[in-house]
Amino acid sequence: MFVDIHHIAIICSDYQKSKHFYTRILGLEVINETYRKERDSYKLDLALNKHYIIELFSFPNPPERPSRPEACGLRHLAFSVKNIDLTVELLNKKGVSTEDIRIDEITGKRFTFFSDPDNLPLEIYEL
C-alpha cells in the first residue's frame, strides 16, 4: 500500500530561529520557501541528501507541545548517522547540547537525543 514516508511536518514558534537551526546547524538544504500572506505563515521544504524530508511551518501563536517526550502523538524524529561520536562532536561545537550516548538494548546500536529550538526531541541513531 505505501512506498515510503514522503515528509514530516513540523510547526515552529520562531520561524527564523528554526530555519537557522535546521539549515545552518543540521545542514538540511532548502528546496522551496513560501510565504502565505493569508495565513501569515511560512512553509519551508527541506531535504537531506536530495531527499525531501521536512516541511517546516510557522503559524501565529501555535499551541505548545503537552510534554516531552511521552505525550500522545509523534514521539520524536530520528536521523541515521554513520559515526555518532563525530556527529555529537559537530553538534556540540555548534552549540547544540546532546544527551549521553546510550545503547539500544534490542539492536545493540548507539543513539542519543538533542532538541530543536522548540524543544522537539530529535534523535541520532548510529547505523
From TrEMBL:
Q: Name one GO molecular function term.
A: metal ion binding
Lineage at the top is: Bacteria, Pseudomonadati, Bacteroidota, Sphingobacteriia, Sphingobacteriales
Matching entries from Gene3D superfamilies are given as: 2,3-Dihydroxybiphenyl 1,2-Dioxygenase, domain 1
Its name, as the record gives it, is: Glyoxalase/bleomycin resistance protein/dioxygenase
InterPro entries documented for this protein:
Fosfomycin_Res_Enzymes, Glyas_Bleomycin-R_OHBP_Dase, Glyas_Fos-R_dOase_dom, VOC_core, YwkD-like_dom
VOC domain boundaries: 4-127
Superkingdom of the source species: Bacteria
Sorted alphabetically, the keyword list is:
Metal-binding
